[in-house]
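May I ask for an example protein's residues together with how it folds?

___
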Amino acid sequence: MPDSLDGLQARQPDIVTGEPMFKLYYAATSPYVRKVMITAHCLGLEGQIEKLESAAHPIKRDERIAHFNPLAKVPAMQTADGLDLYDSRVICEYLDTHAGGPLFPRAGTQRWVSLVRQALGDGLLDAAMLARYETVARPLDKQWDGWLDGQLTKIRAVLVDIENQAPQYSVVPDDIGLIAIGCGLGYLDFRFAHLDWRSDHPATAAWFAIFDQHPAMVATRPVE
């Protein structure tokens, strides 16, 4: 495992005047929005994104977001030329392509490794979000313990897989897969601290202790 935070320097954006290049429906607590913002920080694009207020909810639809995404889910972005983009995977790849960045390998085995890692991190987030919705968005008399247990089982299985891979990971966000995994672990810290995932996953904990101190991670930590 590399031991330096200097492996990925934030790219310097071009000097931009006038309106921001991108408008983003934003929520400070959304791990998927965080994934986009970490990508933007790593590419030097964060100053070109205008954050739009939103209140995404699985039941109470925010029609403002629907201007960019008919699903009314964040993240949802619009480019300066009016192209609507949604789903963190699409937005992150667009930003990386726009900046000529290194976060999505263009070809070869490493591309598939990166995309599978992204799927693993996104899957961790999906299970964690569904578990949280079950307890905070669903009425108490309709909550299903079996559903919650199923999501927590997925979380534990993903953590085992990450633990096996962690010694191979870079400690800087130089790959979209690692960004997704970092967002997943950060979300567990934010919403599921009681799981104490570090106690049974020492290699993952050692990796994340360094990775989580990268400026892009620090700048995007979720707040209520």
User: Anything to note?
Assistant: The chain has seven helices and four strands. The CA atoms of residues 10 and 42 lie 5 Å apart.
